[in-house]
Amino acid sequence: MFGNLSDRLAETFKALRGKGRLSAADIDGTLREIRKALLEADVALEVVKNFVNAIRERALGDEVSASLNPAQQVVQIVNEELIQILGGEARKLRYGKVSPTVIMLAGLQGSGKTTLAGKLAKWLKNEGENPLLVAADLQRPNAVDQLKVLGQKVSVEVYSPEVGSGVGDPVKVAKDSIAHARSKGNTVVIVDTAGRLGVDQEMMTQAKKIRDAIKPDETLFVIDAMLGQDAVNVAKAFEDGVGISAVVLTKLDGDARGGAALSVASVTGKPIIFSSTGESLDAFEPFYPDRMASRILDMGDILTLIEQAQKQFDEQSALEMAEKLAKETFTLEDFLEQMQQLRKMGSLKSMLAMMPGAGQMRQQLDNLDEKDIDRTEAIIRSMTPVERNNPKVLNGSRRTRIARGSGMSVTDVNSLVNRFEQAAKMMKTVAKGGTPNVPGMPAGIGGVMPRKKTKDTKKKSGSKSGNPAKRAAQEQARANGQGSAQTGSGSAFGIGN
User: What is the pLDDT of residues 354-366, one digit of tens each?
Assistant: First the structure.
């Protein structure tokens, strides 16, 4: 979502590096570029002005001038101020004093309310709650049926006494759902309300009636992060007309500029508490302003990555795997198991995007084919248990059979075996506390790709010539050698696209 903004800010800060002291002109130039980047990202003008003024006041003070590294200090100031416009501190979902907790979802049609209701229900269930989904959107065709399908997928009951599609009283449905939840022992009620293509009085009146009938503990405004500046105006209208307690951002995985998402917390004064980053029901997470700021500034989001891993990886399995690595008994069967657990964490691209410096490798990440995991799995599953546990028995005829069984080529099978050997070495290094080189990953993300020694790389280790012209020629030769070493392409698992 914030790829272009991240790139612009990274280029801006790059110009500050290497400067021992920053003049007022340096700071003004940096702020000018930051202002342009934010406006191009569709951040609200009012928010941009306040943001830039706050940075200028701090950057021209003793905080930067007395710093040992002024450039880094400016980046730190930008990071802290970015956290503030995103809401400051993270706020958790507010539960009611008396069960059930009532959550009302409001927003425009197409903002993703119904899908988000299913995601929120699944998240609450994982948190130990017993949620109830309420189909109070009786206006949009098939909205009730859609919520029923989502309820089945997440194994959550859906209260839907009316068929919808223009039939039924949404206020009565919402009110009756509370009594139904009490009788069934539900701890949380999620009310999905109707939206319009635009803000109108009829929409606001219906939302007010539902709010007055159910008295929600949380009124969550669901906003499409790709909407642009209209998102801010809509948020203001809902705050004035219905009253909202918090904001949920959807479609953060989109390729729109997304600046409105940076504006909504400052403009409404309401915190962003959840974000949705994909179509999957697992693509849902609490919103942390500090972590989002780190992502925008290309500092990564290691904490979220660790949390996702902890949810999916079994502790006992991890200990067993560590023992196998230590004893060097890691097999293709184990490799397959690790890939399956990796897939449970979500999109490989989104996970790699959380790594520090990922913005520098955006093109490689965009070209990453996540179907490589499927191809790799197909090859391993075409092997016999003996072959998986002992890849050394894979002779030519066995590899030909595996290639035919998986619908791949012998070259693909050979590449996988080679990559597996590299991965086993990497994991062995990790098990011993070392820093790995991740096979097939771009440089800067998890390690550096191994390079073959060339004449140019050998020259690099030698002494420099005292002749300026000759030394320049040597440096040019090294640069050419390094450039050619990085032009190789291929999948993360050694399988062609």
Answer: 555 555 555 555 5
Dihedral class, residue 448 (left if φ above 0, else alpha if ψ from -120 to 50, else beta): beta
What share of the chain in percent tops pLDDT 70?
65
Domains and CATH numbers, the chain: 3-85 (1.20.120.140), 101-299 (3.40.50.300), 308-431 (1.10.260.30)
Closest Cα to residue 162, out of 189, 118, 116, 194? 194
Sheet with strand 284-286: strands edge to edge: 158-159, 131-136, 188-193, 101-106, 218-224, 246-250, 272-276, 284-286
Residue 73 confidence (pLDDT) = 76
Distinct helix (H) and strand (E) counts, the chain: 23, 8
Q: What integer pLDDT is reported at residue 159 of this predicted model?
A: 92
pLDDT computed for residue 4 by the predictor: 64
Q: Where are the beta strands (DSSP E) in 206-352?
A: 218-224, 246-250, 272-276, 284-286
How much is the average pLDDT of 232-243?
82
HEC profile of 143-183: HHHHHHHHHHHHCCCEECCCCECCECCHHHHHHHHHHHHHH
Distance CA 63, CA 394 (A): 63
pLDDT at residue 461 in the model: 44
In this model, does residue 378 exceed pLDDT 80? yes
Task: Find the range with the poorest average confidence among 38-47, 102-111, 440-449.
Answer: 440-449
Contact 438, 429 (CB under 8 A): no
Closest CA to 273 of 250, 299, 246: 246
Any alpha helices (H) in 62-169, and if so which ranges?
62-65, 70-85, 113-126, 143-154
CA distances from 121 to 150, 171, 406 (A): 9, 21, 38
Task: Give the H/E segment covering residue 377.
Answer: helix 371-381
Render the burial of 82-117: b for 16+ CB within 10 Å, e for the rest: bbbbbbeebbebeebeebbbbbbbbbbbebbbbbbb
